[in-house]
């Protein structure tokens, strides 16, 4: 399509209008705050704010809702890093190294790098949006059931391969997550599976409830074990990152912005998959993989760059084709339709000023958000100052409130408690949690796409060989599963040779 | 310490005032005597929630109802959770409904029928369309049905979000009328209308059935081709798309939404809702909402709605049998 | 032998799941078994992993189980059990007496158990203020429907 400079400038001017800047500011701030609370992800945040947009100019409404969305991407990782309780699927990867950094007394630096990585990832994605929106949309359409099935399979295998040395436990966690994903009405046939006649279960188990249960409730229960020995950590450490840390993070940030962006463009994948894949990629190509999981700064930078880029990317299908690329953009679509705007394939031609206003507002918004988030660090770190005996009861209560806003039913409270206990047991027995959650997130999509692809391609082998994309993903899947075994075999050989010498 | 005590007292005072505010109700003689509750049996962000919140806003803005109104979300079980909740409320509560209140029961997924409630009105409808890829060999609905008559499994048909819903049954009814063996049809079920559009745009399915609003923009942009709609008259702005009737298939298939109250409402209460809702659908704000959402007014008062639901139940029973979903 | 409890638990889970799977309603359209292929694969996969896990633990059967020691030390069991009891009370009260008061009771109760009775004033203040602020911001500012 080429970039129309005039439209771009006009969009920039509209985005710089004080009212729109104010909306970006409000949206970004609200998103950050809401994103930090367990259970309140971007989709919920946008949904509950819809009534506020009634009567607003559609462009401003879109600007506001987009700001809430990427604001929540910034905010989501705050609670992951500080108290090990992600608020949403896409913030899980930030716990892997972010929380260890906090324990090492580097909370400030972890928060700083995550904000900077988000900014750079976001800017990459915005540039990608400006230059490539239409061709990428066409590429995303080519992703059929076979491609999605293998993408999900690859993500799962990559995440299990993280649990080096306890692969069996990783596979068990994954299998349990997949089992949970089969609860509910089977989409293709309408058969009720494992619902035990409870109507609330017919739409499946919400993965967000499981995330809050396993992480937030589980973490609180786990901390009861050492409650009286826990001192105020009060170790913000340095706020600014060191030169060495920047050197380590620079390339992971640059590499994973585009990865996250591309995955975000695919309707049906999203921030959770983007950030998990970025984390595993960085760890697998790292020269010192043993540092990961113990507070490696690049393990925070990579997924943060990726998930923010994904949130920008998910606007592409929405704005070029009128189909939502993620749960949150689906809610945004519903809201702007109420306002009389109908994003569709003609949006770029019919109201270019709106598209370019949005793009420019994202640019401004990301810069504002970095400033907000870096300023907030000194406030947030007060959380670590709160005595644990007060902090953990508060987290527990917030977990329940967050859960209620997801389904408006106390039935989910029981699910929350059950998963809290499961989370506690998993922590005690050293089971990896991420495979369980990710399997639950992608499980039902994976099954449905698998079944659709078998219908479409008649045979399972044809599914694997359906296109260059599926072949690549099949190979990557096999590699990621066998990689840990190959590595240990190579190491064994090396040590044997050393012994021999 | 004094400071703490003061703020404690302050908070308690505020809490108490806040509570007494909502509890108070003036002259208790005429209905409604209490706050009104609108049940959206779904999460925020969808059509049911949108309808509920729009009703709340217009009732309030236009001073049709003086009492406070709240929207409560009770998602789950395709409306089941919200309607179960409604059953135990009094006449100050009503819920949004759709054909699911009929089909859930017919499909054996719920014990509730419309008879367990008091139908108050039918409000809006959408129409259902059939679409294909722009370079498809099919130019109208009949061509598709002709091919399916020869070989019912030759085309993959996309539908969302479940079997037995309106998008699915509208196609089944059209095919049945033409003499296709509908139990053999190969449906691919997607999670949302957006996914159906994506699948069709990416050539992963051959035919899609979905509401007009989901396909309209794509059709106008030439990204996909609408070949039939289930409305009585051609749709405004889409005059080039023939209705099934124009193509010789006797079919009118509304995808309606309405409201219903709890069981055993008094005549006075029903009359109150007939009056307020008929005022609501006349407002400009309501008309604007319909236009924005590509909905059409389908207003029926409580009496007409009850008859309509009875008719619809028979109709759906037959359709679900035809589709092979029930015996 | 405690060591073998977990693997056995997974093996039993997978068998129960498989039994439930084969008991599923058949589909009325297309392949009648379509809904159960995927669950069956997962069930069998978990069964295999459970058995491997069983043998891994079997090799270590002479080692003592340390993992659960923390659970029964100090006041941990009291904390966990009283939290669970409070959660059930909260779940019971939530839709009956409304968000505001049930949350005050829940948070207050938790704080008295975890933070101690000595700090009663702090506990009461926090639970009242926190409940009120969250209630106000959700229900009034954000229009979330709370009981």
UniProtKB/TrEMBL annotation, chain A:
Which keywords does UniProt give here?
Membrane, Transmembrane, Transmembrane helix
In this chain the DUF112 domain maps to 21-438
TM segment ranges: 21-40, 46-70, 110-133, 145-163, 170-187, 207-225, 315-341, 361-383, 390-407, 413-442, 463-486
The answer on whether this UniProt entry bears the keyword Nucleotide-binding reads no
Query: Any keyword Transmembrane?
Result: yes
User: Which PANTHER family does this UniProt record tie to the protein?
Assistant: TRICARBOXYLIC TRANSPORT PROTEIN
Protein name, UniProt field: Putative tricarboxylic transport membrane protein
From TrEMBL, chain B:
| Signal sequence, start to end | 1-20
Superkingdom of this entry's organism?
Bacteria
Q: Which PROSITE patterns match?
A: PROKAR_LIPOPROTEIN
**Classification via InterPro entries:** BUG, Bug_dom1
**Pfam families, per the entry:** TctC
Does Nucleotide-binding show up as a keyword for this record?
no
Q: Which PANTHER family match?
A: TRICARBOXYLATE-BINDING PROTEIN, UPF0065 PROTEIN YFLP
Q: Which family does it belong to?
A: Belongs to the UPF0065 (bug) family.
Please give the name of this protein: Tripartite-type tricarboxylate transporter, receptor component TctC
UniProt source species: Piscibacillus halophilus
Recite the lineage of the species: Bacteria, Bacillati, Bacillota, Bacilli, Bacillales
UniProtKB/TrEMBL annotation, chain C:
Pfam families listed in its UniProt record: TctB
Give the keywords, sorted.
Membrane, Transmembrane, Transmembrane helix
Query: Which InterPro entries does this chain map to?
Result: DUF1468
Q: Where is the DUF1468 domain?
A: 6-147
Spans through the membrane? 7-24, 36-55, 76-93, 99-117, 124-146
The answer on whether this UniProt entry bears the keyword Repeat reads: no
- Does the record bear Membrane in its keywords? yes
Q: What is this protein called?
A: Putative tricarboxylic transport membrane protein
């Amino acid at each position: 399509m080429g970039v129309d400079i005039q439209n771009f400038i006009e969009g920039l001017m509209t985005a710089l209008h004080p009212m729109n800047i104010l909306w970006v500011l409000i949206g970004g701030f609200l998103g950050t705050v809401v994103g930090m609370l367990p259970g309140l992800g971007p989709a919920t945040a946008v949904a509950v704010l819809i009534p506020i947009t009634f009567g607003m100019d559609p462009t401003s409404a879109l600007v506001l809702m987009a700001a809430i969305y990427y604001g929540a991407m910034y905010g989501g990782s705050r609670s992951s890093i500080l108290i090990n309780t992600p608020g949403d699927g896409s913030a899980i990867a930030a716990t892997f190294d972010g929380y260890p950094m906090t324990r090492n007394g580097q909370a400030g630096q972890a928060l700083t790098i995550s904000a900077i990585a988000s900014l750079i990832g976001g800017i990459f994605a915005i540039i990608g949006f400006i230059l490539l929106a239409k061709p990428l949309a066409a590429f995303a359409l080519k992703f059929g059931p076979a491609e999605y099935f293998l993408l999900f399979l690859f993500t799962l295998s990559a995440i299990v391969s993280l649990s080096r040395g306890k692969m069996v436990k990783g596979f068990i966690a994954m299998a349990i997550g997949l089992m949970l994903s089969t609860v509910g009405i089977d989409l293709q046939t309408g058969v009720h599976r494992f619902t035990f006649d409870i109507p609330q279960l017919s739409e499946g188990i919400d993965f967000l409830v499981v995330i809050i249960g396993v992480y937030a409730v589980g973490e609180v229960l786990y901390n009861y074990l050492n409650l009286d020995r826990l001192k105020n950590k009060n170790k913000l450490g340095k706020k600014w990152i060191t030169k060495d840390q920047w050197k380590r993070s620079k390339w992971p940030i640059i590499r994973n912005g585009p990865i996250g962006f591309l995955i975000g463009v695919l309707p049906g994948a999203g921030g959770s998959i983007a950030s998990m894949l970025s984390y595993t990629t960085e760890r697998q190509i790292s020269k010192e993989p043993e540092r990961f999981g113990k507070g490696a700064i690049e393990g925070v930078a990579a997924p943060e760059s990726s998930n923010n880029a994904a949130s920008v990317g998910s606007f592409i299908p929405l704005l070029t084709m009128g189909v939502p690329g993620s749960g949150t953009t689906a809610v945004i679509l519903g809201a702007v339709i109420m306002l009389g705007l109908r994003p569709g394939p003609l949006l770029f031609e019919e109201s270019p000023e709106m598209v370019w206003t949005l793009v420019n507002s994202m640019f401004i918004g990301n810069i504002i958000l970095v400033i907000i988030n870096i300023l907030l660090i000194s406030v947030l770190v007060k959380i670590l100052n709160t005595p644990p005996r007060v902090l953990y009861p508060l987290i527990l209560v917030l977990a329940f409130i967050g859960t209620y806003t997801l389904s408006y039913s106390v039935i989910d409270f029981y699910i929350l408690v059950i998963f809290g206990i499961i989370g506690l047991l998993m922590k005690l027995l050293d089971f990896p949690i991420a495979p369980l959650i990710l399997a639950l997130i992608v499980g039902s999509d994976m099954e449905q796409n698998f079944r659709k692809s078998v219908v479409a391609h008649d045979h399972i082998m044809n599914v694997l060989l359906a296109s260059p994309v599926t072949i690549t993903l099949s190979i990557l899947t096999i590699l990621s599963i066998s990689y840990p075994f190959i590595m240990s075999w190579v190491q064994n050989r090396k040590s044997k040779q050393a012994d021999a010498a | 310490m004094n400071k703490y005590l003061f703020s404690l007292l302050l908070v308690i005072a505020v809490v108490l005032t806040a509570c007494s505010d909502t509890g108070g109700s003036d002259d208790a003689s005429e209905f409604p005597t209490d706050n009104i509750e609108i049940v959206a049996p779904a999460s925020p962000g969808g059509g049911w929630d949108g309808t509920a919140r729009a009703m709340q806003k217009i009732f309030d803005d236009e001073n049709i109802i003086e009492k406070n109104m709240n929207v409560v979300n009770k998602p789950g079980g395709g409306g089941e959770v919200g309607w179960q909740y409604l059953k135990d409320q009094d006449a100050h509560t009503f819920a949004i409904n759709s054909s699911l209140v009929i089909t859930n029961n017919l499909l054996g997924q719920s014990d509730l029928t419309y008879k367990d409630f008091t139908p108050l009105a039918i409000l809006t409808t959408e129409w259902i369309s059939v679409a294909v890829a722009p370079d498809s060999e099919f130019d109208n609905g009949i061509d598709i049905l002709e091919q399916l008559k020869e070989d019912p499994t030759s085309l993959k048909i996309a539908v969302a979000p479940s079997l037995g819903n309106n998008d699915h049954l509208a196609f089944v009814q059209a095919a049945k009328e033409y003499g296709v063996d509908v139990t053999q049809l190969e449906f691919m079920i997607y999670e949302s209308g957006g996914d159906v559009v994506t699948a069709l745009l990416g050539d992963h399915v051959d035919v899609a059935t979905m509401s007009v609003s989901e396909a309209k923009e794509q059709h106008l942009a030439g990204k996909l081709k609408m070949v039939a709609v289930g409305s009585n008259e051609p749709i405004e702005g889409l005059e080039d798309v023939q209705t099934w009737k124009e193509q010789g298939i006797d079919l009118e298939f509304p995808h309606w939404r309405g409201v219903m109250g709890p069981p055993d409402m008094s005549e006075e209460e029903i009359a109150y809702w007939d009056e307020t809702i008929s005022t609501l659908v006349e407002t400009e704000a309501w008309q604007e909402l319909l236009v924005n959402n590509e909905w059409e007014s389908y207003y029926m008062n409580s009496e007409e709605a009850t008859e309509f639901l009875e008719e619809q139940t028979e109709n759906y029973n037959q359709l679900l049998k035809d589709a092979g979903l029930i015996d | 032998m405690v060591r073998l409890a977990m693997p056995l638990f997974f093996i039993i889970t997978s068998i129960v799941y498989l039994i439930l799977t084969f008991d599923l309603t058949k589909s009325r359209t297309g392949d009648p078994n379509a809904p159960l292929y995927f669950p069956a694969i997962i069930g069998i996969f978990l069964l295999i992993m459970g058995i491997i896990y069983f043998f891994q633990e079997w090799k270590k059967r002479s080692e003592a189980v340390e993992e659960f020691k923390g659970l029964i030390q100090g006041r941990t069991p009291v904390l966990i059990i009283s939290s669970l009891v409070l959660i059930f009370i909260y779940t019971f009260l939530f839709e009956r007496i409304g968000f505001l008061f049930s949350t005050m009771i829940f948070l207050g109760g938790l704080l008295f158990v975890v933070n101690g009775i000595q700090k009663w004033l702090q506990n009461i203040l926090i639970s009242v203020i926190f409940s009120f602020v969250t209630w106000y911001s959700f229900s009034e500012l954000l229009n979330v429907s709370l009981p």
